[in-house]
């Protein structure tokens, strides 16, 4: 079957780690003989003078096509207006992608159009698929529903797209329930769990892992005492400030923050005000291939995000044998079915400190932690989405939004 998949969340030479989990899924799909996949990743470029800033300057110079991420890919640019123009991104994506989609379809017809993210991809794909006369599927990953779902204009577009989708995918049962709650048809939502690079993410004995990362200049993580790691973009909704405050009740713990973002200066100020400069490290961006060593070196991964679907990083940390401390959000309960996997904790410093203390008082064996995610792999993930596409193509087409 010929699949046209459209994803604004996908790596490119200017942002090589952006949406890497979508790339991994699609690489697994391309390994399957029954699928001929064409990927299109629309790239948003703001108007001048914002277009002169990074990363937009580099994004504007991307080639029209590239096999950089390991498979052929089209990078059509569309005009975006940061912070204020997000609700109208689907319109501009359609304008940029539809001529390309028509040309590719005329050359070698597609059977189905796929969206890898519900907003802005979903509404755009609904209109492109309608124009081509094809069924479509849309996947939700968490932030699309939890963030964009709070914006009435975006939510209305997502619900419209949901009505015309043959099937929709959710990364957890909890996210499926959230999709139903905003008006999406339950009977057409399928849970599609994330995958895992099992060769990369596996336990490395903790002392050995600490020796490895202490020898890497870009990390140089403190390895004395207990090590907590909080990976992710330094933005308010990820909750790094809560972990920093929790350190006041965790005197023998160091914290390493792996990521960059707009909230870094505020977090540094908080660290200074609490007198914790000797116990908190800002690692900056950590290459994905170094995460297995970093996770294996940690005694716990602490991620007090405001919302998630089922975070890939949860699965990756557990696969390295490191328990996680997360709020009761998204699919957390679907992962933490065994005490070895970690603890659920309210988004409050005292609760986080208490959960970490419980883990440190009785640390699980790394292999026992890793076993809790033994069913995750990209091969399984790729096979499952191919099965979902086949099912979607066999279903009667629902009423779809007008093109």
Describe what this molecule looks like in 3D:
This protein is of the alpha/beta class. It folds into two domains: 2-195 and 378-394, Rossmann fold, CATH 3.40.50; 206-371, Glycogen Phosphorylase B (Rossmann fold). Helices cover 38% and strands 15% of the residues. The chain contains 16 helices and 16 strands. The strands form three sheets. An eight-stranded mixed sheet has the order 4-5-2-1-7-8-9-10, with helices on both faces. Strand 14 (300-302), helix 12 (312-319) and strand 15 form a beta-alpha-beta unit. Helix 1 packs across helix 16 (378-394), helix 8 crosses helix 11 (291-297) and helix 9 packs across helix 14.
Please give the structural blueprint.
Elements: E1 2-6, H1 20-30, E2 36-40, E3 43-45, H2 56-60, E4 65-66, E5 73-74, E6 77-79, H3 89-107, E7 112-115, H4 121-132, E8 136-140, H5 143-146, H6 152-164, E9 167-170, H7 173-181, E10 189-191, H8 206-214, E11 226-231, H9 240-246, E12 253-258, H10 264-273, E13 280-284, H11 291-297, E14 300-302, H12 312-319, E15 324-326, H13 332-335, E16 342-344, H14 349-361, H15 366-371, H16 378-394
Parallel strand pairs: 1-2, 1-7, 2-5, 3-6, 7-8, 8-9, 9-10, 11-12, 11-14, 12-13, 14-15, 15-16
Antiparallel strand pairs: 4-5
Helix pairs in contact: 1-16, 3-4, 4-6, 8-11, 9-14
Keywords:
single chain, six-stranded parallel sheet, globular, Rossmann fold, 403 residues, eight-stranded mixed sheet, 2 domains, alpha/beta
């Amino acid at each position: 079957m010929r699949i046209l998949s459209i994803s604004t969340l996908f790596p490119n030479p200017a942002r090589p780690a952006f949406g890497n989990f979508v790339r991994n899924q699609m690489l697994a799909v391309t390994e399957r003989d029954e699928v001929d996949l064409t990927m299109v990743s629309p790239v948003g470029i703001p108007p001048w003078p914002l277009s002169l800033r990074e990363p937009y300057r580099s994004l504007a110079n991307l080639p029209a096509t590239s096999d950089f991420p390991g498979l052929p890919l089209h990078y059509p640019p569309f005009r975006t207006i940061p912070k204020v123009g997000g609700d109208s991104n689907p319109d501009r994506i359609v304008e940029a992608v539809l001529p390309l989609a028509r040309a590719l379809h005329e050359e070698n017809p597609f059977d189905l159009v796929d969206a890898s993210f519900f907003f802005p991809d979903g509404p755009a794909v609904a209109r492109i698929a309608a124009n081509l006369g094809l069924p479509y599927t849309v996947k939700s990953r968490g932030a699309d529903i939890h963030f964009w779902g709070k914006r009435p204009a975006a939510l209305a577009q997502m619900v419209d797209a949901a009505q015309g989708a043959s099937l929709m995918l959710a990364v957890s049962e909890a996210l499926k329930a959230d999709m139903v709650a905003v008006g999406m048809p339950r009977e057409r939502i399928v849970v599609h769990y994330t995958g895992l690079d099992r060769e990369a993410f596996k336990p490395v004995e903790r002392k050995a892992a600490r020796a490895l990362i202490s020898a890497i200049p870009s990390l140089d993580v403190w390895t004395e005492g207990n090590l907590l790691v909080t990976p992710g973009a330094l933005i308010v909704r990820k909750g790094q400030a809560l972990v920093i405050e929790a350190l006041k009740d965790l005197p023998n713990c160091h914290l390493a923050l792996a990521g960059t973002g707009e909230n870094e200066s505020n977090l540094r100020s908080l660290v200074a005000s609490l007198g914790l400069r000797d116990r908190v490290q800002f690692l900056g961006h950590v290459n994905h291939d170094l995460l297995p060593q970093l996770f294996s070196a940690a005694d716990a991964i602490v991620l007090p995000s405001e919302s998630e679907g089922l975070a890939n990083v949860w699965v990756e940390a557990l696969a390295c044998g490191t328990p996680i401390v997360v709020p009761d959000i998204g699919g957390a309960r679907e992962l933490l079915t065994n005490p070895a996997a970690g603890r659920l904790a309210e988004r409050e410093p005292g609760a986080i400190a208490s959960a970490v203390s419980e883990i440190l008082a009785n640390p699980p064996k790394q292999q026992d932690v890793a076993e809790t995610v033994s069913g995750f792999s990209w091969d399984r993930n790729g096979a499952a989405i191919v099965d979902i596409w086949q099912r979607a193509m066999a279903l009667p087409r629902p009423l779809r939004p007008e093109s």
